[in-house]
Amino acid sequence: MTIRRFTKMHGLGNDFVVFDARAAALPLTDAKVRALADRHTGIGCDQLIILEPPRAGLADVFMRIRNADGGEVNACGNATRCVADAVMREKGTDHVVIETAAGLLDAARASDERIQVDMGPARLDWREIPLREACDTAHVNLSLGPLSDPVAVNMGNPHAVFFVSDATAIDLARLGPQLEHHPIFPERANIGIAQILAPDRLRLRVWERGAGITLACGSGACAALVAAARRGLTGRRAFVVVDGGELEIEWLPDGHVAMTGPVATSFSGDVAL
Q1: pLDDT for residue 112 is more than 80
Q2: N or C: which terminus of the chain carries fewer CB neighbours within 10 A?
Q3: CATH code for the domain of 154
Q4: One-character DSSP codes across 109-126
Q5: What percent of the chain has pLDDT over 70?
C-alpha cells in the first residue's frame, strides 16, 4: 500500500488537496481522483493539485490540476495562489513562477496572507474560447431560462459570464450543468452569474466545469471583470465578491489580468493510495 502526504488548502473556500510529486511520480486514475475528492468518503475538495518538476527553465514548479470529476484542466486561479504561497514559503522568496498547461504564471506575495498572480492574457477570439462557430464573444447568442447574452472569455479555461440584476436569485445548480454542456462549447465551459454592485464592485457566483458550484473561482472572477469592462459596466479594476469572500482583479494595459486574494492552509495528513 502506498502512503502519500497531502496538504489541504483553500482560497476563499475554493478548496484543494495538494500532493507533492516532484520527487516521486503520482499517477492517479480518474476514479482515484473522484474518490479522493469525495466529501463523504474521501478527503474532499473542488480540485486535486499535483506538484511536479517544471518543464520550462524559468518555472519553479509545474502544477497539474484535476477536477473533482477526475478530468484534467489547464487553469485554476485560486489553486495557483495556494501553490505559489506554499512554494514561496519553501524557497524563502516572495516571487515564484508557476508552470501550468495554460502557460507560465508569475506570482508574488502582496502581504502575509494575500498573493497576486498574473493570470496571463484574457483571450477573446471565438476560436480561443473555444466556441463552436464564429461570433462576437461580447454578445454570444445563448440563452436558457432567465439567462441570456453572455460574454465569453478564456482565462486559461473557457468562461461564459451572464449579467443579471440579482445573482442570488438564479438557480445555478439547475442551469449551470445545462449551460456547461451546451453544444456551443466544444470543451464545455465555466458558467458565471455576475451582478454589478458599483463601477468597481461585482457580485459573482460560478458553476465550475467538472466541479459544480464553488465558494470562489479565481479564473471566473478574472473573466467576470473582463466581461464587465468589455460591456462598459465597470472599469478595468474591481473587487469581485464571491460566496467565500473577495478578490481584487485588474485587467492590465498589456491585456494580462492580475488577481489578488488570500490563501489558507487547513491541515496536512497522509492518505493510502
Answers
A1: no
A2: N
A3: 3.10.310.10
A4: ESSSSEEEEEEEEPB-ST
A5: 100
Q: Record the cell numbers describing residue 10, joined without a space.
A: 483553500
DSSP alpha helix (H) spans, 138-191: 172-180
CA-to-CA distance for 18 and 2, rounded, in angstroms? 16
Kindly state whether residues 158 and 104 are assigned to the same domain. no
Q: What is the value of pTM for the model shown?
A: 0.94
Residues β-bridged to residue 265: 9
Same domain, 77 and 138: no
- My answer on whether 63 and 113 are in the same domain is yes
Nearest to 206 by CA among 236, 238, 180, 232: 180
What mean pLDDT comes out for the span 217-223? 97
| pLDDT band, residue 64 (cuts 50/70/90) | very high
Instruction: Measure the CA–CA gap between 179 and 252, rounded to whole angstroms.
Output: 29
Contact 14, 244 (CB under 8 A): yes
169 phi/psi in degrees, rounded to 5: -85, -10
User: To which residue does cell 492517479 refer?
Assistant: 28
Residue 83 pLDDT: 98
Q: In 35-109, which ranges are E strands?
A: 47-52, 61-67, 72-73, 95-100, 103-109
Residues 41, 152 share a domain: no
Phi/psi of residue 64, each to 5°?
Answer: -100, 135
Contact between 228 and 202 under an 8 Å Cβ cutoff? The reply is yes
Q: How many domains does the chain have?
A: 2
109 shares its domain with 165: no
Catalytic residues: 76, 217
Expressed as residue numbers, the domain containing 64 is 3-120+261-272
Dist. CA 224–CA 161, nearest whole Å:
6
Query: In degrees rounded to 5, what are phi and psi of residue 208?
Result: -85, 135
The verdict on 147 and 223 lying in the same domain is yes
